[in-house]
Amino acid sequence: MTISLRPVEEDDLPFLHRLTSDPGSTGEFQWYGFQNPHRMRERWETNGMLSEDGGILIIANDGGAVGLVSWTKQVANRASYYWSMGLIVAPEHRGQGHGTQAQRLIARYLFDHSVVNRIEATTEITNVAEQRALEKAGFTREGVLRGCGFRAGRWHDGVLYSMIRSDLT
């Protein structure tokens, strides 16, 4: 298995829409309701889904799309920022280690191509598989975020993870 990250191509847009808008593909922890079916195309046409404030890359296994990673810039203070990152792996590829490898790759990519010292990731407290994947990827659990995310008609607690530049091995 050779996991890599690559920029989004036009042919990936239906796959990305499925991962973010189809309740059967998003997974229990990523279903936030139906999305504008043109949103991904508009973003891709505007900037290829890559900007100074964040982006989306395809998680590829031997060239074929298996998921996405995304990141957004978060202002820490007047002098610094950090990245908040996340991912979605297609249901047919879950449980095979793709997420763990992709999290390592995106962390390396972000540290190599920006001056940030910190990358954060959050997940719902009941998403044990994602917590395990983040820990395997080298992220450190920092704590519980009470009532931090609204999904499926109610507020859910989350778990905050981080990696700082010196954590990379």
UniProtKB/TrEMBL annotation:
Gene3D superfamilies with a match to the protein in the record: 3.40.630.30
EC code(s) of this entry: 2.3.-.-
Residue ranges of domain N-acetyltransferase in the record: 3-166
Keyword annotations of the record: Acyltransferase, Transferase
Record-linked InterPro entries: Acyl_CoA_acyltransferase (IPR016181), GNAT_dom (IPR000182), Ribosomal_N-acetyltransferase (IPR051908)
GO MF entries: acyltransferase activity
Top-rank lineage group of the source organism: Bacteria
Protein name: GNAT family N-acetyltransferase
Organism: Nonomuraea insulae
